Amino acid sequence: MYRLLILFVCGLAACLPAVEETCETLATQHCEQCTTCSDEFSSNALCDVDANTCRDSIITRCETQAATVPDPKNELQTCADALEAYQCTEFMSDYASGARPLPQECDYFL
């Protein structure tokens, strides 16, 4: 019985990428949106980050925030799925309305 439980738990953990890997992917995607969704605004204006340090600062924030939640892998995967679907039109619409330009699912991590 315990062997099956261990296999089940280990199997679930292996299905999702490591927190560090997911944070790196999220940072890359979000920084790309910050720098490419608009020619009129800088990444500083759009995302409150410098283009040169965007990725590193977001990775640091993501990993720090992930350490504070009970199930970071699942929550980060939810954020990753939402960010993957988040288009520049939504990004710019959120920015124009005064909201942070990112999916709500990612607000805590990014």
Automatic annotation (TrEMBL):
Domain of life: Bacteria
PROSITE patterns in the cross-refs: PROKAR_LIPOPROTEIN (PS51257)
Signal peptide limits: 1-20
Key words, A-Z: Signal
Protein name in the entry: Uncharacterized protein
Species this chain originates from: Microvenator marinus
